[in-house]
């Protein structure tokens, strides 16, 4: 299946439009919401992995297989990164050991 120059131009136009739209949407999100936004987008990364697997399984030539494999790797990296960000975000809300020890000591002193 040969890609014509017009098909390439249309694909490039759609890619550029999607990239610009994504940049504009994300740039309008307040910085305090970037971490929850990234951890909430894990399901999108899962869809990327499914799409990349679909492309990999339907690949017939070596370059298509390489592109599909790279897509699966990048998608899996995005999923892993999303879970790491979520774990770090949740760790910010856990009390530290020093704080817990100090509260327990204060409670024991108050109970005496």
Automatic annotation (TrEMBL):
<feature type="domain" description="NAD(P) transhydrogenase alpha subunit C-terminal">
    <location>
        <begin position="12"/>
        <end position="94"/>
    </location>
</feature>
<feature type="transmembrane region" description="Helical">
    <location>
        <begin position="66"/>
        <end position="85"/>
    </location>
</feature>
<keyword id="KW-1278">Translocase</keyword>
<keyword id="KW-0521">NADP</keyword>
<dbReference type="Pfam" id="PF12769">
    <property type="entry name" value="PNTB_4TM"/>
</dbReference>
<feature type="transmembrane region" description="Helical">
    <location>
        <begin position="38"/>
        <end position="60"/>
    </location>
</feature>
<comment type="function">
    <text>The transhydrogenation between NADH and NADP is coupled to respiration and ATP hydrolysis and functions as a proton pump across the membrane.</text>
</comment>
<protein>
    <recommendedName>
        <fullName>proton-translocating NAD(P)(+) transhydrogenase</fullName>
        <ecNumber>7.1.1.1</ecNumber>
    </recommendedName>
</protein>
<keyword id="KW-0520">NAD</keyword>
<keyword id="KW-0812">Transmembrane</keyword>
<keyword id="KW-1003">Cell membrane</keyword>
<keyword id="KW-0472">Membrane</keyword>
<dbReference type="GO" id="GO:0008750">
    <property type="term" value="F:proton-translocating NAD(P)+ transhydrogenase activity"/>
</dbReference>
<keyword id="KW-0997">Cell inner membrane</keyword>
<feature type="transmembrane region" description="Helical">
    <location>
        <begin position="6"/>
        <end position="26"/>
    </location>
</feature>
<dbReference type="InterPro" id="IPR024605">
    <property type="entry name" value="NADP_transhyd_a_C"/>
</dbReference>
<dbReference type="GO" id="GO:0050661">
    <property type="term" value="F:NADP binding"/>
</dbReference>
<dbReference type="GO" id="GO:0005886">
    <property type="term" value="C:plasma membrane"/>
</dbReference>
<keyword id="KW-1133">Transmembrane helix</keyword>
<dbReference type="GO" id="GO:0006740">
    <property type="term" value="P:NADPH regeneration"/>
</dbReference>
């Amino acid at each position: 299946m040969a890609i014509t120059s017009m098909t390439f131009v249309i694909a490039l136009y759609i890619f550029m439009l999607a990239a610009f739209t994504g940049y504009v949407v994300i740039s309008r999100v307040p910085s305090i919401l970037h971490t929850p936004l990234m951890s909430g987008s894990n399901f999108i990364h899962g869809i990327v992995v499914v799409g990349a697997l679909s492309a990999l399984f339907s690949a017939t030539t070596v370059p298509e297989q390489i592109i599909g494999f790279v897509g699966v790797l990048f998608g899996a990296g995005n999923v892993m990164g999303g879970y790491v960000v979520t774990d770090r975000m949740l760790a910010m809300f856990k009390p530290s050991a020093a704080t817990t020890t100090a509260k327990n000591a204060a409670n024991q002193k108050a109970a005496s």
